[in-house]
Amino acid sequence: MARRNDHTREEIQGMAIDATRTLIATEGLEGVSARKVAQQIGYTVGTLYQNFENIHELILHANAFSLTQLLAALEQAYHQESKPMQRIIRIANTYLDFGQMHEKQWAAIFRHTLPQGFVMPDWYQARIDALFSLIERAVWELAPGRDKKQIQLASRTLWSSVHGICILNIGNKLYSDNIATPQTLMQSLVTHYLNAWVREGSKA
Amino acid sequence: MARRNDHTREEIQGMAIDATRTLIATEGLEGVSARKVAQQIGYTVGTLYQNFENIHELILHANAFSLTQLLAALEQAYHQESKPMQRIIRIANTYLDFGQMHEKQWAAIFRHTLPQGFVMPDWYQARIDALFSLIERAVWELAPGRDKKQIQLASRTLWSSVHGICILNIGNKLYSDNIATPQTLMQSLVTHYLNAWVREGSKA
DNA sequence: TTGAATGGTAAACATTGTTCAATTATGCTT
DNA sequence: AAGCATAATTGAACAATGTTTACCATTCAA
What we know:
The structure is a homodimer. By secondary structure, chain A is mostly helical. Chain A folds into two domains: 1-52, Arc Repressor Mutant, subunit A; 67-203, Tetracycline Repressor, domain 2 (Orthogonal Bundle), CATH 1.10.357.10. The longest helix of chain A has 24 residues, at 55-78. The radius of gyration of chain A is 20 Å and the shape is elongated. Helices cover 74% and strands 0% of the residues of chain A. The interface between A and B is large, with 42 and 42 residues. Chain A binds a DNA duplex through residues 1-5, 9, 33-35, 43-47, 49-50, 54-55.
């Protein structure tokens, strides 16, 4: 294996992903370009394209990193001792906080779209699955008696909604801030939805 | 006013917006380019840039058109005779259906982002406001006794959530379709959230 | 009819993603 | 140690993007 600098293939890839993450964090997704990344790591575009199929794969790796950070934050919120309902609220607020604190990275995750014919890699989908699985666990603890399908339905409904609040929160500030904070909306969503959902279950 | 062809400024703008809408509908937001639009309407890019500040303004106009269509569909759903709760469910499903039926246009609306320093024009924001106002009306009918702040809070919470379900529905199909349809999620969200919210109000 | 103003064009510029032939450095073999 | 094969790296090239602008053409008013 011949190499001119003291960087292995893996090192170059790591450096490129780091540079991409920095670019996203400072200039946003639109600020990322192959040449900028290459220049940042001291190589040329050509080298970049030998380590990544295309620019989307690179962005995908950077986003996967953010997803891992997010997941870690959610796991931490999960593992604090408290009642099931409070736990879910805490996780939801962590989700919200992450979006607010890392706005550019967050936007990059859900705003980036694969071009036609590009399939989402398994290692990326796995992170998303892990996220949903965490929610399902938390919801299950709230109502251990419900069957799996119901848990799944409620989890996905709830988390799509939580996600919706996060989205409308960043960028387009749809709420005049003096009226209601996104935390208030989040609280309203989770308590109302889950209270009714739990009650429905105890009826049957 | 000198003109080479028989098109007024307004006509050219209308043609350009139409062409942009077609491009979005067929190729998606990424398929839109100034040259494609110009060629479609039989003019050059230069002419396009005399009628629009930049490509984003053009896209904004196309998206505003979609928003108007969406609003019309929601208004129609609103004006059908039924109980308040059923009305809201119907509106939410109309929202969902619109996203499914006009996937590309829908994605173009919420995926398009203004570049730095670009402020959203009033005529665009007005359409979004109209949308939220419609929901507020529908929620008010469900609980006419609640004060305005509470109505606003519930409306925004609910609609952010509805929006979240729509988003996760298109593109990234996060639900294995054999488990639950998005309509099921929508039904679950609206009924549970609003039932608990109404009950909370009658307690006070 | 002539001149001024407007409509429209085409070419140019910078920047994007992506490819690829040429070059250079490395490791292995003899 | 020399040479060779292989891999790494470059830099130029291509097409397509948004955007600007100098120039040409047409029309209306005088």
